Amino acid sequence: MKQEIAQKMRRAKERIENRHAEVQGSSDSGSPVFSNQNIKYEIGGRQGGVAMGGIGAMHKFVKSIGLDKVIDEKLHLLKIHKPYHESDHVLNFAYNVLCGGKVIDDIDHMRNDEHFLDAIGARAVPDPTTAGDFCRRFDENDIHILMDVINEKRKEIWAKQPVEFFEIAKVDGDGSILPTTGEKKSGMDISYSAPRKVCTSCG
Q: Is the pTM value of this prediction over 0.70?
């Protein structure tokens, strides 16, 4: 991280801590803390914002490790690139999920957001229909090729980690309960534990 950015983040953290310190122990001002501010909204001419703020960093990471190049070298599903390559399609699906997409049609939200397109340096991305056609080109061998490409890149990244990185392994043991879409089966939306058997003869 650049020193200038680190300083800005540190100063921002200090400002927040100071604001919290001012509120703690202060007396009642007679009005709620949430007040009415004179906020104005306008559309910027040169600068734009994107809801998927981290997509630029993710795309920069993909380019830095050369994942897109290896996908194009190993995966051959398209006879002609008009204009999309195999990596464009694969990343299109991956970025759709990263940006909160649930289904293939959610790609439309991204391809109609000019600031998203600017963030990944693309004139356009494949539409849902074209993306669906790309999926249908896969056979079992192609799936294994794509998996191998990703796994090889994963090993390269792990190999670059310092030795101390491997000293501690953390396992996320979160037991969150998530809803399912099995609407027709009774009880699928709740957690169920079988009643414990009690031995009456054991006292």
A: no
